[in-house]
Design the sequence.
């Protein structure tokens, strides 16, 4: 008989609070709310219907998620869909964690004060001693096993090299003009060449980590990371611009997506850091989890593909 999935509540409480959520224990379940992007996550027993759990969500919630401690069944999934609620269980939680934990690129209050476009950005991490370029993992082996939900897998912690830099970008506005300036981090995986934006202050650098881990070597030069970083910044800060015209009494709205111009991006110097990932591998498949956020990945190091 298959073992019951491990309850996600203890892991979620630690991860969500670290990601800026306010955690509250309620009679119908736990509720985690993040004000900056109006996300709300409820953690409930599978015997609670989505309609019951919905009552604890704040009225201004933009994205509502219910995480059940087991398989809730088709009736609950259908009801959640009708009410606009995302529904997760222990088997689907891992791949969805990235969206829950990391704030979106453009959220209210994410713009910084104006500054000269010619200023040079500092490295996103302070100077460190030799060897102190490793991100501290938050997910241990036991928690990775619960999130991956891959029975009989062999778990290996690998430290993957990333080129990380701070950047500023001026975005367009819906009216087509120049918008506010945003500051974030861009990270380029030096093995897969995949680039993405990060929120600042999420990852902590340490000189070493506890337990064994495989440290991978970069397969990409720092100069090769620059165009990948610029592309990721433009992709993540693209805005939709609507142009409205009236023709013969009819209103025509043309929508287009406008990325920031390269001239509106200022990229700081790169730091080479090593980010921990759990590789859960079996003869039939594999899952890769970010050991900081717990999110599942689809793009992995080609050395292990």
Sequence:
């Amino acid at each position: 008989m298959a073992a019951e999935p491990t309850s996600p509540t203890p892991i979620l409480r630690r991860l969500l609070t670290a990601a800026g959520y306010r955690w509250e224990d309620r009679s119908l379940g736990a509720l985690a709310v993040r004000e900056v992007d109006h996300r709300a996550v409820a953690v409930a027993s599978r015997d609670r219907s989505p309609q019951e759990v919905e009552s604890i969500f704040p009225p201004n919630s933009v994205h509502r998620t219910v995480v059940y401690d087991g398989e809730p069944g088709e009736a609950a999934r259908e009801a959640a869909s009708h009410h606009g609620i995302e529904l997760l269980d222990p088997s689907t939680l891992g791949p969805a964690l990235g969206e829950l934990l990391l704030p979106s690129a453009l959220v209210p209050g994410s713009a910084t004060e104006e500054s000269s476009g010619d200023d040079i950005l500092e490295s996103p991490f302070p100077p460190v001693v030799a060897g102190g370029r490793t991100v501290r993992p938050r997910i241990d082996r036991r928690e990775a096993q619960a999130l991956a939900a891959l029975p009989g897998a062999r778990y290996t912690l690998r430290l993957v090299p990333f080129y990380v830099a701070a950047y500023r970008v001026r975005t367009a506005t819906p009216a087509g003009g120049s918008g506010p300036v945003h500051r974030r981090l861009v990270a380029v995986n030096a093995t897969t060449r995949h680039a993405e934006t990060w929120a600042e202050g999420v990852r902590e650098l340490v000189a070493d980590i506890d337990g064994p881990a495989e440290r991978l070597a970069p397969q990409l030069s720092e100069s090769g990371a620059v165009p990948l970083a610029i592309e990721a910044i433009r992709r993540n800060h693209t805005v939709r611009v609507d142009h409205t015209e009236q023709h013969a009494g009819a209103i025509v709205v043309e929508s287009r997506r406008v990325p920031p111009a390269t001239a509106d991006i200022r990229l700081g110097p790169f730091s080479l850091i090593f980010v921990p990932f759990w590789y859960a591998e079996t003869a039939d498949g594999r899952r890769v989890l970010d050991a900081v956020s717990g999110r599942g990945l689809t793009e992995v190091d080609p050395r292990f593909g």
Summary: The chain has two domains: 9-101, 134-304. Residues 134-304 form one domain. The first strand starts at residue 22 and ends at 26. Confidence is low (pLDDT under 50) at residues 1-5, 105-114.
